[in-house]
Amino acid sequence: MGYKQVAVLVAGSWGTALARVLADNGHTVKLWTRSANQAEEINGQRRNTKFLPEAELPEGIIATTDMKDAVSSAEAVLFVAPSSAMRDVARQAALYLHKDALIIHATKGFEPDSLKRMSTVLAEELGRSEHQIVVLSGPSHAEEVVIRQPTTVVVASQETACAEAAQDLFMNEEYFRVYTNPDFIGVETAGAIKNIIALGAGLTDGLGFGDNAKAALITRGLAEIARLGAAMGANPLTFAGLAGVGDLIATCTSKHSRNWRAGSMLAQGLPLEVVLQRMGMVVEGVRTTKSAHMLASRYGVEMPITNQLYAVLFDGRSPELAVGALMGRVKKNEIEEVADASRDKWLRGQPGV
To answer: Is 140 annotated as a binding residue?
Structure first.
């Protein structure tokens, strides 16, 4: 089935960049925003200066503040709302959503209070099976995608037809390559928790540490992501792919990363409230640190980097003390720590194992 009418909710940086991909692929895109001024700017000036000031947007993107206008004729709906707002946006969209519309989301985070993944939130509000919802993730900065820099992502769903439909929707031979993956739990978990590690990378850079420290942080951070993901039902192999190590590298090493910038400012001694105010955009890693801290306790998974970042963000611990606590942990065997009980838990749940 071809999808000509696509709705994108909402008009932040990532939603706008993905709307550009869809418009380049020949789809008519309704880009929903709560802001009348933003809609007027996009439609009149072909700009979204708050989020992507350098990009000129194609005519195929039509901004609207009317949810019914955005969704009612859409054959595919892409949700890119912040994790804290996803349920509210989905609840509004559900009033007008076509029963056969393809549902995709590209938000990297957990619902703050319930700790639910975004596909679970969407399934509850839209009356869909969670297995049919598609997750789009991977190493993909909006600032690069919107100017057509080569990018490769993954779309995940347990329903192969849904994943392949989303792959066809976004695939652009010039600059946007899309792979499929059946492990939507792993792809969602990796995309959310890598933001925590990016905060840590910004912190270490802000403290003046070098590449050795960052490489160690990324590597051990990946181990934390894999441990929690496997405990939640993900395939550990997912974390070696685009949604795992790929996204982690991009987010921990790029000037475009909001989470990296926030971590760097924290290392300079700025209070969290000031950092968030200066950022002016959602920093998902802050919320996700709190969620992952709680999930680690729920699943009995050791996440020392996450725990130290939680202490910095919410308990007033200095970044220097947090680094010292990580360096002073008891001696470990690397291989045994990676292949811990959470991996065994995933294996026990697989048929034939």
So the answer is: yes
188-215 pLDDT, tens digit per residue, is 999 999 999 999 999 999 999 999 999 9
Residue 3: the pLDDT is 79
Query: How many other CB atoms sit within 10 Å of the CB of residue 348?
Result: 9
> Comparing 5-182 with 190-347, is the CATH topology the same?
no
Known catalytic residue: 194? yes
CA-to-CA separations, 34 to 50, 70, 77, 145, in angstroms, rounded? 14, 12, 17, 23
According to the annotation, is 39 in a ligand binding site? Answer: no
Of 30, 99, 116, 194, the active-site residue reads 194
Which CATH architecture describes the domain 5-182?
A: 3-Layer(aba) Sandwich (3.40)
345 is in an annotated binding site: no
* Domain 190-347 CATH class label: mainly alpha
Lowest mean pLDDT, pick from 123-132, 253-262, 285-294: 253-262
Interatomic CA distance for residues 131 and 50, integer angstroms: 35
Q: What ranges do the domains of the chain cover?
A: 5-182, 190-347
31 strand-pairing partners: 8, 63
Is 108 annotated as belonging to a binding site? yes
13 is in an annotated binding site: yes
Say whether pTM exceeds 0.85. yes
User: Of 267, 272, 252, 271, which Cα lies nearest the Cα of 320?
Assistant: 267
